[in-house]
Amino acid sequence: MLQDLRELQKESGAMLTENGEIVASFGNDIQGFNSAYDDVVICDRSHWGVLQLTGSDRSRFLHNQTTNNINSVQPGQLCDTTFINSNGKILDLVTAYLTEDSIFLLVSPQRSTLLYQWMDRYIFPMDKVEVKDISEQNAVFTVVGKNAATKLNGWDIASTIITELSPNQHNYITINDEKIIIAYSTGLKLPGYTIIVPESLSKTVWQTIIDLGITPIGNGVWEQLRIKQGRPYSDHELTEDYNPLETGLWSTISFDKGCYIGQEIIARLNTYQGVQKRLWGIKLNQLVEPGNTIMIDDKKVGTLTSSVAVNDEYFGLAYIKTKAGGEGLNVTIGDATGELIPVPFLSHEYYKPESK
């Protein structure tokens, strides 16, 4: 899969993981991180999964399977939504792109098979919906930075689309009868675009974007960005140990849409303000391995789920007991110390229905 693209990237200095499926670094991590805020970068996220839903019942089906109000999303729009189990625990955070004839789901790494099987078990004989895993037929690129639109406008065939898109909208261009989705969204609280490209065009599109003067970054920089932003990740923050309210994914939940898998649990937690732990950013004085216990004095108050070094600073994400406190709370993790900080991707506001 994507062999030609990988060879092209290696010629530009890409270092791959052992399995050869992920670009770990381009040897420019410090520059790349800074450019994501100050200029523009491109990250290859092709190890993420892509699922496709077709059939006239696709929106209704996804609406009933996930936490957000899919029925209110129109073709050309996108939204984040969460798959949860019957106990309200997280299976994955996904982005849904609605088109006139399909819904495309960008799912976390190593989650496509799980979600494919999860949805397939709930498709009944009368349902007019089909789910396909098209991950291996597509590449996923994300362009991040305040200069993303300016630089991408130099891509002649896409310039009109780039100019017309508003946040959380998408459209497509056609090359060699193949459709390329361009979405005004990065999966972070940073400006930019996500591009879903058929595998046959991945090398051409990557080179085109690089030729526009956009800096390539590896997955290591993406990890730095997503932890600084507070974007939860599969097998770290997104697990069946936590529910989306604890994770701070309130923006992915509709409390007015009615029944879906796990809905009663989520509604009860909101109504009775029953969230017992919350995901926070944490600034550390040294790098600490995820999984370590977080303490205040001699009491366990949470667990570190992710950590990363960013230049000469250290950051992480951690689930902390609600009663222990929030922003500004000082904690210890072994020999390390940390302070809880807010992160832009997450929110922890309870939903209050309007009185009638």
Briefly characterize the structure.
By secondary structure, the protein is an alpha+beta fold. 23% of the residues lie in helices and 31% in strands. The chain contains 10 helices and 19 strands.
Descriptive report:
There is one protein chain. By secondary structure, the chain is α+β, with helices and mostly antiparallel strands. It is 23% helix and 31% strand. It has helices spanning 3-11, 29-38, 58-65, 112-120, 148-152, 159-164, 202-211, 219-229, 244-247, 263-271, and strands spanning 15-16, 23-25, 41-44, 49-54, 78-84, 90-98, 103-107, 130-133, 138-144, 170-175, 178-183, 192-198, 215-217, 277-284, 293-296, 299-310, 313-321, 330-333, 336-341. Strands 10-11-12-9-3-13 form a six-stranded mixed beta sheet, with helices on both faces. The chain has a six-stranded antiparallel beta sheet with strand order 15-16-17-14-19-18. A five-stranded antiparallel beta sheet has the order 5-6-7-4-8, with helices on one face. A hairpin with a 2-residue loop joins strand 10 and strand 11. The longest helix is centred in the middle third of the chain and has 11 residues, at 219-229. The relative contact order is 0.15.
Helix content: 10-25%
Shape: globular
Strand proportion, as a percent range, falls in: 25-35%
Structural class: alpha+beta
- End-to-end gap: 55 Å
How do the helices and strands follow one another from N- to C-terminus?
A: HEEHEEHEEEHEEHHEEEHEHHHEEEEEE
Q: Average pLDDT, to the nearest integer?
A: 96
- Per DSSP E runs of 2 or more residues, the count of β-strands stands at 19
Low-confidence stretches: none
Largest sheet, if any? 6 strands, mixed
Given the structure, what is the number of helices? 10
Main β-sheet, spatial strand arrangement:
10-11-12-9-3-13
Radius of gyration from the alpha-carbon trace, in angstroms: 20 Å
